């Protein structure tokens, strides 16, 4: 793992280009709520209330705002069904799924980090 990191982080690199790419990534998936929302939708929660219930502490207003932003960034699709009452469902796009391996790596790292800082490794 260390050798792989050293290979990726070796010199010379285009730092300005890398910083721009990192900032773009953080802009799209950063913040307290976006990754939990993606995780919730990828775990089968499609309706607004189901997503909200699966994420402790998120407000209706914040979830609504984040879903709109994520739709603009092509991470999710919003589908409105003209039933009575109207039904709205959110699904991940293929583009969102391309971020999957990174999310899984972050989950793995987070678990290891928690063990490390609690002394349970």
TrEMBL record:
Transcription among keywords: yes
Alphabetized UniProt keyword annotations: DNA-binding, Transcription, Transcription regulation
InterPro entries tied to this protein: HTH_HxlR, WH-like_DNA-bd_sf, WH_DNA-bd_sf
Keyword Transcription: yes
Gene3D superfamilies tied to this protein: Winged helix-like DNA-binding domain superfamily/Winged helix DNA-binding domain
Top-level taxon: Bacteria
Gene Ontology terms for molecular function: DNA binding
Domain HTH hxlR-type residues, every copy: 20-118
Pfam families tied to this protein: HxlR
Official protein name in the record: Helix-turn-helix transcriptional regulator
Organism of origin: Chitinophaga agrisoli
């Amino acid at each position: 793992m260390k050798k792989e990191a050293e290979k990726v982080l070796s010199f010379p690199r285009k730092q300005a280009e890398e910083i721009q790419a990192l900032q773009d990534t953080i802009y799209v998936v950063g913040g307290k709520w976006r990754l939990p929302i993606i995780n919730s939708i990828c775990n089968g929660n499609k309706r607004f209330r189901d997503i909200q219930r699966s994420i402790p502490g998120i407000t209706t207003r914040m979830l609504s705002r984040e879903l709109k932003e994520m739709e603009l960034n092509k991470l999710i699709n919003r589908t409105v069904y003209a039933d009575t009452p109207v039904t709205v469902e959110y699904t991940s796009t293929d583009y969102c799924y391309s971020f999957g391996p990174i999310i899984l790596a972050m989950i793995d790292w987070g678990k290891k980090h928690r063990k490390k800082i609690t002394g349970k490794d």
